[in-house]
Amino acid sequence: MSFKDIKGQDSAISFLLSSLANNKVAQSYIFAGSGGVGKMLTAMNFAKAVNCQGDVKDKPCDACIPCKKISSSNHPDVSVVKAHKEGSSVGIDDIRELIRSISLKPYEARKKFYIIDDADSMTQEASNALLKTLEEPVSDSVVIMIVQNINFILPTIRSRSQTVKFLPLGIDEVKDFLVKAHGVDELQARLLSSFSSGSPGKALKDKDADFLEKRQRILGAIINKTFFDLEFEKASRTELKNYLDIILAWYRDVFVAKAGGVAESFFNIDKKDIIMTEAKKADFNKLEDTIRQVLSTYSFLDTNANPKLAFAVLGFKI
Ligand SMILES: [Zn+2]
Question: 103 and 228, same structural domain?
Fold first, then answer.
């Protein structure tokens, strides 16, 4: 996998490649953008490009020894730093090795790379320790912080780092990526891309998690008015949020149809006839009311309210 396999991030990639060509690789970068848009892949490929020994114009070559070692996570000078437990914060223990070894010479690389995943979850203690480390100039190490929300990074770290923005992709770009690179059929790809918020990574995750099957089940329950038969108790909070995305997209489609919008803009493009029929029967105020209820159910889930209760209240509106 090289830069050409990363879709929709041409400006981020060309910025990094020009800093490499001009010998201006920074000591620390913040890669900022939504989840699943290619930040980690870009970071890995940048580490390869900087260390590539291949005799090619477009680096990384993906064939030389450093490229291969980095691709298979076997390079002693390239490490991914992350929280020791999934879903928890990046703490001081997680970055201790970085702090210890950053000023040491690389084993075999031109530049060592430390890629901190979910760096916006760093604890205060970890952030302060990292800041101290970044204050000491080290010529042969590069730190890349991968973040979704740059506002959670200390301003003093931000001012010492080069920020690279990663933008969400368009629906058609995500769809084409699913079709061409993953052999997903056109309709499925269109549906997955509609729900992806411009993130190819999310679309692929949804594909593997049978998202479309879940969508079918939930929409069936809304259309046939059997919402209370769905077993929400067993679902995790993340799953429940996924369900809310599906419910919200449905009412948004009906609302758009009612307002005279075109079917091409529907999330659930495969159900356009039912959406049109529902729109004819629906009342604007009631639709607005339901959409508001779905939105407040998201906040219920965030504030640790009883999810079962939150969904029961929503069920009455639906
Ligand atoms: Zn190479």
Answer: no
Ligand 1: distance of its center to the CA of 32 in Å? Answer: 26
Q: Tell me how far the alpha carbon of residue 70 lies from the centroid of ligand 1, in angstroms.
A: 10
pLDDT value of position 317: 79
Q: How far is the CA of 254 from the centre of ligand 1 (A)?
A: 51
Residue 175 lies inside a defined structural domain of this protein: no
Same domain, residue pair 114 and 228:
no
What's phi and psi for 125, nearest 5 deg? Answer: -60, -45
| Cα–Cα dist 193/177, whole Å | 9
| Model confidence at 17: pLDDT above 90 | yes
DSSP string covering 200-236: HHHHHHHHHTTHHHHHHHHHHHHHTT-GGGS-GGGS-
Q: Considering its fold, how many domains does the chain have in total?
A: 2
Q: From ligand 1's centre to the CA of 62, what distance in Å?
A: 5
Residues 144 and 42 in one domain: yes
Instruction: Say how far apart CA 35 and CA 49 lie, in whole Å.
Output: 23
CATH assignment at residue 226: 1.20.272
Higher pLDDT, 314 or 278: 278
Residue-range definition of the domain harbouring residue 300: 210-317
Q: Residue 313: what pLDDT? A: 82
Confidence (pLDDT) at 14: 96
Residue 160 CA, ligand 1 centroid: distance in Å = 29
Residue 262 covered by a domain: yes
In a domain, 174, yes or no: no
Binned at pLDDT 50, 70 and 90, residue 105 comes out as very high
Answer for the pair 131, 155: CB distance below 8 angstroms, yes or no: no
Instruction: Give residue 239's pLDDT.
Output: 86
Going from the Cα of 175 to the center of ligand 1, the distance in angstroms, rounded, reads 30
Question: What's the gap in Å between 107 CA and the centre of ligand 1?
Answer: 17
Residue 141, helix vs strand vs coil: strand
The alpha carbon of 108 and the centre of ligand 1 are apart by a number of angstroms equal to 14
Query: Are 54 and 118 in a shared domain?
Result: yes
Distance (angstroms) between ligand 1 centre and the Cα of 63 equals 5
CA 39 to centroid of ligand 1, rounded, Å:
20
